[in-house]
């Protein structure tokens, strides 16, 4: 019986070794002969769908899309830095960024409303960005551009005081790590490198954690607040901007969640400090998934 079990175990091992070797050979063949993007996940090969490939091909040809992820930005200079208005927009209008723009609904929507401003949507997800980039191109919007890059290096692409406003629309609250949170002092210091003194920052979110954290951060640093509400669509605020709803925002509204909004200014003077408070974590996540950890609060 023991010999029988050993034989079965040996067969299993040979089968696993064969699978691993086949994956390795196939991956090597793909890297040499096939141009299709590929990812690995737990030794499984995952190919991008044809739709994504076509979208990335489109993006490479779009004149208003600039693609500079980490791997590219580290090896080349970005000549548009400090020259966005002169070399691309061909005007002197204020520049507004949407960081984590997703499908670009706000970038395109705001661009259509305000022809006297220039809008740049920023995200690393090119397949999502394609939606807004394509719409802007089809509509001939000369005041809209897109930058595909990591927001962690956003200060590499804009010169001091080149940007007037920043929109943060439904950003991941990053409840576990403050340095990844787009309203943390870590990012505020980055924004100071290119945002005009007292430039505007807009936060629109479904996340109570994100909103509460940002409120504490603003209070801790005495940043001037122009408007704040925990229920935007019942706040009495009259603004055309309320007519723009992102794909994810509509999901939250359909689930009966309040949309929170805050508009504040970021002065350049004074050192910024993180708020030392514990904040209750959100009880939900996208697509009806529960929160990731067993923790109830975080800073």
From TrEMBL:
<comment type="similarity">
    <text>Belongs to the class I-like SAM-binding methyltransferase superfamily. TrmB family.</text>
</comment>
<keyword id="KW-0949">S-adenosyl-L-methionine</keyword>
<dbReference type="Pfam" id="PF02390">
    <property type="entry name" value="Methyltransf_4"/>
</dbReference>
<keyword id="KW-0808">Transferase</keyword>
<comment type="pathway">
    <text>tRNA modification; N(7)-methylguanine-tRNA biosynthesis.</text>
</comment>
<dbReference type="GO" id="GO:0043527">
    <property type="term" value="C:tRNA methyltransferase complex"/>
</dbReference>
<feature type="binding site">
    <location>
        <position position="98"/>
    </location>
    <ligand>
        <name>S-adenosyl-L-methionine</name>
    </ligand>
</feature>
<protein>
    <recommendedName>
        <fullName>tRNA (guanine-N(7)-)-methyltransferase</fullName>
        <ecNumber>2.1.1.33</ecNumber>
    </recommendedName>
</protein>
<dbReference type="InterPro" id="IPR055361">
    <property type="entry name" value="tRNA_methyltr_TrmB_bact"/>
</dbReference>
<keyword id="KW-0819">tRNA processing</keyword>
<dbReference type="InterPro" id="IPR003358">
    <property type="entry name" value="tRNA_(Gua-N-7)_MeTrfase_Trmb"/>
</dbReference>
<feature type="binding site">
    <location>
        <begin position="246"/>
        <end position="249"/>
    </location>
    <ligand>
        <name>substrate</name>
    </ligand>
</feature>
<feature type="binding site">
    <location>
        <position position="172"/>
    </location>
    <ligand>
        <name>S-adenosyl-L-methionine</name>
    </ligand>
</feature>
<feature type="binding site">
    <location>
        <position position="176"/>
    </location>
    <ligand>
        <name>substrate</name>
    </ligand>
</feature>
<keyword id="KW-0489">Methyltransferase</keyword>
<comment type="function">
    <text>Catalyzes the formation of N(7)-methylguanine at position 46 (m7G46) in tRNA.</text>
</comment>
<dbReference type="GO" id="GO:0008176">
    <property type="term" value="F:tRNA (guanine(46)-N7)-methyltransferase activity"/>
</dbReference>
<feature type="binding site">
    <location>
        <position position="150"/>
    </location>
    <ligand>
        <name>S-adenosyl-L-methionine</name>
    </ligand>
</feature>
<dbReference type="InterPro" id="IPR029063">
    <property type="entry name" value="SAM-dependent_MTases_sf"/>
</dbReference>
<feature type="binding site">
    <location>
        <position position="123"/>
    </location>
    <ligand>
        <name>S-adenosyl-L-methionine</name>
    </ligand>
</feature>
<feature type="binding site">
    <location>
        <position position="206"/>
    </location>
    <ligand>
        <name>substrate</name>
    </ligand>
</feature>
